[in-house]
Amino acid sequence: MLAYLPANLRDLQLPLRLRLWDGKQIDLGPEPRVTLVVKDPSLVTQLAHPSLDALGGAYVEGRIELEGPISEVIEIGDALSQALIGDEAPVEPDFQPHDKDTDAAAISYHYDLSNDFYGLWLDRELIYSCAYFETGTEDIHQAQQAKLRHLCRKLRLQPGERLLDVGCGWGGLARFAAREFGVEVYGITLSRAQLDLARQRVAAEGLERQVQLELLDYRELPQDGRFDKVVSVGMFEHVGHANLPLYCQRLFGAVCDGGLVMNHGITAKYTDGRPVARGGGEFIERYVFPEGELPHLATITARISEAGLEVVDVENLRLHYARTLEHWSARLEDQLEQAAQLVPEQALRIWRLYLAGCAYGFARGWMSLHQILAVKPRADGSHDLPWTRADLYS
């Protein structure tokens, strides 16, 4: 053993090899599957308390290198952190106020990275949200088409209806709903890169009369109940806890009496919304989703109800998102050389950890993914939903 290694590091039995800046190396267990290359000597003492945030940050900043399959890097990194830190005491969440400028900047940071980069590992329609696996054997393209159909069927879309798509991304859902269900779609986003490509794809399919996409903040949505249905996919994670009541009120004001609202998004493990332990959530906040905040299912359903909407159906797709992220991560890993030509080295390091880490986290229940369907009841309390879910699966 090397004397300058922290004592608690020497006693581990993990399939991990440490290679130090001077060429010396040590195996922390038999048959190492991952090698952690320490390039910065100051990191050795930090390895005595290896939070996921610290480990991830060191890799992003080039102070360590990681050798081995990225999925095993994540698994062994978490085992190292768990062994040396354990389950830390809960940290009081520090939710920040959100305004239009900070939200726009955060969205641009994440989504305006490179359309071509996203195209390497997303499906053909660039659907950047949890897919839906009806059997578990589908490829990512099939599963994303199934997700779009599942959403549209839950909304009971009918030809000629007006659908509001809040956070429309690259327009995959908007085009699908217009093409397959005959609805008129008004979509909004804060990402200019997404909007430009989404409009190009709308034009290429000849859907300009049915699909209108705009750069607009959800706080500016019309409040005259002009839409028959509202869908929001992967959007409310960016709203912030403080603005959840306003967000739900804006959805309520946009939909007509008797209309349906679908909210599809990531939810927190803990009821107070604090991030996952040992720094995983902090890494995502720092490098991936600045200003992002995850509410618990209980919180978002409460805010939906307080806005005047009635929650009528909830579905947990946590394992579907784990499978989705496994597909995304594998597709990115298969094309690392091409990805390196599209984004800066630091960005690629972030995304490698993020996709593989989230696949691991969703599989282990660190966070969930819920589809929440709500209705805006008429004055007499009525609505037109079927008595059962049978129509969704016929």
From TrEMBL:
Keywords from the named record: Lipid metabolism, Methyltransferase, S-adenosyl-L-methionine, Transferase
GO MF, any single term: methyltransferase activity
Biological-process GO terms, alphabetical: methylation
Coiled coil: none
Source species, domain of life: Bacteria
Residue ranges constituting the DUF7884 domain according to the UniProt record: 13-76
Enzyme class, first EC level, given as a word: transferase
EC code(s) of this entry: 2.1.1.-
Family: Belongs to the CFA/CMAS family.
PANTHER family the record matches: CYCLOPROPANE-FATTY-ACYL-PHOSPHOLIPID SYNTHASE (PTHR43667)
Protein name: Class I SAM-dependent methyltransferase
